[in-house]
Amino acid sequence: MSSLPFYDAVTQDFDDVNALIMRQLHSRVPLVEKIGHYIISAGGKRLRPLVVLLSARACGLEDARQHSLAAIIEFLHTATLLHDDVVDISDQRRGRSTANSLWGNAPSVLVGDFLYSRAFEMMVELGDMQIMRVLANATNVIAEGEVLQLSKVRDASTDEATYMEVIRSKTAMLFEASTHSAGLLAGAEAAQTEALRGYGNALGIAFQLVDDVLDYNGDAQAMGKNVGDDLAEGKPTLPLIYTMREGTAEQAALVRKAIQKGGIDDIQAIQQAVRECGGLEYTSRLAREQSEEAVRLLQSLPPSIYRDSLEQLARFAVERAY
């Protein structure tokens, strides 16, 4: 799956999950399969199914139900990506054209709906009401997070608490649901399941905080998106919020104007401002704290290569450059 070491413990599981995903993409409507295969084959890090597999294995689960759960999570995530790209009017994701730029908004939204409903069909087959409750709640919270973020676009008065609510809902929630449901599926002790839930939340927050740092100092080719994309869309992320709060009057005014206007006309000046006033370091520090919390929570699990891989993943979240 990847050269990154934390995938190694579940290589065969990943192959089984990928095969299951392709089988579950079947549809009597050719365009559904075409768009579904396109977006799924874009790959990415597949982190959410990864944490399902590692969490389930870490709790001793050995049967194929974890493959179903990992595929369900990937379908939910892919559905949100299809809808996100329509909402954000994005034309590139992971270094290639988005589905909406190739087929239009309507097919992209509808195939996203298909993936959501296929995921819930697969949940019914798992037959675990606790897991359905966790995943149904997660999809609800994610949708609320999307709407909250949309309501704050070009709003330069957005504060840190609101930003954190957005990323907990939009990004961390599905990581949390992945690890939480894996613990439930494995029949783990309540304390271990709760530790996994907390691990997923902390991991997701750490990933999003680092993404927001990389939006100002990352490598566009490695990330598969352009530096400054969030600013171009008028999204007030934490480095910008910190700069408006802690920077000089001139720095704050520069950022405030850029958020309200959207676009990246002043991207170089803004990159310099968020760096000089400490916005990137502040955001990175919060990410490291979340990573450390994730590692701490793993101590509730018995020692195994799977727990070690979850720890490596938590550290990778804040050390990566893409």
Automatic annotation (TrEMBL):
Its EC number is 2.5.1.90. Its cofactor is Mg(2+). Supplies octaprenyl diphosphate, the precursor for the side chain of the isoprenoid quinones ubiquinone and menaquinone. This is Octaprenyl diphosphate synthase. It comes from the Bacteria. One of its GO terms (molecular function) is metal ion binding. Pfam families: polyprenyl_synt. GO terms for biological process: isoprenoid biosynthetic process. It catalyses: 5 isopentenyl diphosphate + (2E,6E)-farnesyl diphosphate = all-trans-octaprenyl diphosphate + 5 diphosphate. Transmembrane segments: none annotated. Keywords: Magnesium, Metal-binding, Transferase. Belongs to the FPP/GGPP synthase family. The keyword Transferase applies. The keyword DNA repair does not apply.
